[in-house]
Write a structure and sequence with these properties.
Blueprint lengths: L1 H8 L11 H15 L8 H22 L10 H15 L4 H10 L1 H25 L14 H7 L1 H10 L2 E3 L5 E3 L9 H6 L7
Antiparallel strand pairs: 1-2
Helix pairs in contact: 1-2, 1-3, 2-3, 3-4, 3-6, 4-6, 5-6, 6-7, 6-8, 7-8
Amino acid sequence: MLEGCIRSIASKALPPIDISLNQLLQQCFTSVDAANYCLHDTDSSRRFYNHLVYCQSLILLAAASDRPGPSIIGSTTGLLARVSACIADVGINDARTLAGLKEQDLEVYQTARRVYWTALIIDRFHASSQSTDMMIRRYSGTLSRDDYSALGEVAYYLARKCRFITIDNHQRLIFIRCCPTRWPHSLCQSRGKHPKC
C-alpha cells in the first residue's frame, strides 16, 4: 500500500518496477478488498488491531487514488466512506473503547489516534477541494494532550484546524464557530479581532 501511495504521489522517488502504477494500485486494492473478509477475530484485541491495519491500508489507497484522471481503484470518496465505516464499526474514536485501550496498550492507543485524525484530515481536505460531503464524522471530544503525543506538533495543529472545516448546503467552505466572530482562533488574531480567543 505504501509503495503504491508513494508511486502515485512521487513516482520518480522509487526505482522503476515491471508493472504500471495502475496495475500496482489495482493489486493493492484487491489485497485490501480480500483482507476485509479476514477482519473478524474471536480475540477482541486482535480484531481491533486488524481493523487498525485495514483502516491504514484504506487511508493509503485513498491518498493514492486522489489524483487527476480516471480512478482505477474506486473513488477517493468511496474509500473514505469505507474508512468511516471501519472507524465506527470497531470504535476507533469511541471514548469508552479508547479509555480501555489506553490502559492496556499505549502503542495501539496512539496508533488508533493517528489513524482517526489522519483519516479526518484527508477527508476534510478532499471534501473541501472536491466540494463533496465529508465522510469522517467527529464522534466525540476534542484533541487532547494524548493526541499531541500521538500525532506530533505539525499533525496535531493540522488536525486542530481541520476540525473547523465544514461544507454548507451551498457547497461553500465555511468554518464552524469557535468564538463570537465565527472564525478559528488564528484567523481571529490575524484579522485583529478577539486577540484572546
